[in-house]
């Protein structure tokens, strides 16, 4: 998943971004609503984590703006404003969830996972493709009952492919979802990570799960 963190307090912004990155997700950060408008025009995000009280453009105005433009990206408000009226205003502006500061980071990450489940139509954090099982909460992956050890980035790539099982994903789609704007790696990095997954998931099995669609990309499916 690719997450946008919009928080004007730079230290807190950095802490939130690092916590999400530790889960293997790609994160972009900015510090007010106007900057956030530029970010969402340049990339697609799975979740926007958004402060309300910010300079230049506050969080409520930002959400109202993107909803008017048809952008339905799930929005998680982070704010110290904890009255019922504040929560109602946040949700009625187009927000999806309201988390009051100070918050526990485990709750933040659980809410992000729950929001993505809602918008992908999956009711749990567990996904299956054939004999492959992926748990988004515990980061456990098994194939035919055998545990598969993955790095954070390998897990993020597999999760993206599992959530899009049966859909051909291009190199550009993967880059846009797994790496942020600061990424300066080589042009073949996606190919390298797909190769890593193939060795760990398909080696030794007659049925392959990762298939190359020549000239386009890859698809995860059971044949």
Please provide a written account of the structure:
This protein has 223 residues and is an alpha/beta fold. It folds into 2 domains: 2-120, Response regulator (Rossmann fold); 126-220, Arc Repressor Mutant, subunit A. It has 8 helices and 12 strands. It has helices spanning 10-21, 33-42, 59-68, 84-92, 105-120, 152-163, 171-178, 189-201, and strands at 2-6, 26-30, 47-51, 75-79, 97-100, 126-129, 132-135, 141-143, 146-148, 169-170, 210-213, 217-220. Strands 2-1-3-4-5 form a 5-stranded parallel β-sheet, with helices on both faces. Strands 6-7-8-9 form a 4-stranded antiparallel β-sheet, covered by helices on one side. Strand 4, helix 4 and strand 5 form a beta-alpha-beta unit. Helix 6 crosses helix 8 (189-201). The radius of gyration is 18 Å and the shape is elongated.
Give a short summary of the structure.
By secondary structure, this protein is of the alpha/beta class.
CATH architecture descriptor of the largest domain:
3-Layer(aba) Sandwich
- Number of self-contained structural domains: 2
| CATH C-level of the largest domain | Alpha Beta
The number of helical segments is 8
The outline comes out as elongated
What's the Cα radius of gyration?
18 Å
Order of helices and strands: EHEHEHEHEHEEEEHEHHEE
């Amino acid at each position: 998943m690719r997450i946008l963190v919009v928080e004007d307090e730079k230290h807190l912004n950095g802490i939130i971004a690092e916590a999400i990155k530790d889960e293997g997700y790609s994160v972009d950060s900015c510090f007010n609503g106007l900057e956030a408008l530029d970010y969402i025009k340049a990339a697609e995000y799975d979740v926007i984590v958004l402060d309300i009280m910010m300079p230049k453009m506050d969080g409520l105005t930002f959400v109202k703006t993107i909803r008017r433009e048809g952008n339905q990206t799930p929005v998680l408000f982070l704010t110290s404003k904890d009255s019922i009226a504040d929560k109602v205003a946040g949700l009625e502006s187009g927000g999806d969830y309201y988390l009051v500061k100070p918050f526990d980071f485990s709750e933040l990450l659980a809410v992000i996972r729950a929001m993505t489940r809602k918008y992908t139509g999956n009711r749990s954090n567990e996904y299956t493709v054939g004999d492959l099982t992926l748990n988004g909460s515990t980061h456990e992956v098994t194939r035919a009952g055998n545990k598969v050890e993955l790095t954070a980035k390998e897990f993020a790539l597999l999760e993206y492919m599992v959530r899009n099982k049966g859909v051909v994903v291009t190199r550009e789609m993967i880059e846009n979802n797994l790496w942020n704007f600061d990424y300066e790696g080589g042009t073949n990095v996606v190919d390298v990570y797909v190769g890593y997954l193939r060795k760990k998931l398909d080696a030794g099995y007659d049925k392959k799960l990762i298939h190359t669609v020549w000239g386009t990309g890859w698809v995860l499916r059971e044949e």
